[in-house]
Amino acid sequence: MKHRNNSQAWFGTLALLLFIGLAFLVVYIPSSLNGIDHSLKVFIQSFRTANLTKFFKLITEIGNPIPFIVINIVIIAWLTLRKHWQDALFFILTTITATGVNHLIKDIIKRPRPKIGRLIPIGGYSFPSGHSIASMALFGALIIITAHLVRNNLLKWVADIFWILGIILVPISRVYLNVHHPSDIIGGMLLGFAILTIYNQIIFSKSRRR
């Protein structure tokens, strides 16, 4: 168990270091990201169809403020009513920190969004992707909470498939809709994973040693 905890801490630290490196490139050498951003954007947007556009417009709503807040309230209320205090605290801290840190970094870096070809109206800055950090924090926390609370292996696997799809599809929707550069998505996911790992270690480390 100790080895597993150390591995998680190592991966979280690596994710944070990679995010810092990516943020450095965004601020000081943005041209270094043009190639990978363009290639990934062209690849993802090459699958555009009318039905897929409707699908991703629906998926991207999960990370918008009102749906995200409602989802958080429902999950926190359920965990609290069931007296899963540690899991509730973990969920609250992870999602609130992810949202707050995202806004702070965006206001510092002030990277413009893609200017042409957006499929939905949007304002604000681009790096890191708020939807990506939010989906990683939200669904990543649900993966950890599911592991703690669900004993039925089949139910656990089914739930985890949904959570993983959320982690993947919400960020992809932002590139598909052309409101983020792919490097914004990568940055958001890295930072979200680092925050998730930090709180996982802080809140659950003692209970794991029992």
TrEMBL record:
Chain ranges passing through the membrane: 9-29, 62-81, 88-105, 125-150, 157-179, 185-204
Keyword field: Membrane, Transmembrane, Transmembrane helix
Protein's organism: Pediococcus argentinicus
Annotated Pfam families: PAP2
SUPFAM superfamilies listed in its UniProt record: Acid phosphatase/Vanadium-dependent haloperoxidase (SSF48317)
Keyword Transmembrane set for record: yes
Domain Phosphatidic acid phosphatase type 2/haloperoxidase: 88-200
Tree of life domain: Bacteria
Protein name in the entry: Phosphatidic acid phosphatase type 2/haloperoxidase domain-containing protein
Residues in coiled coil: none
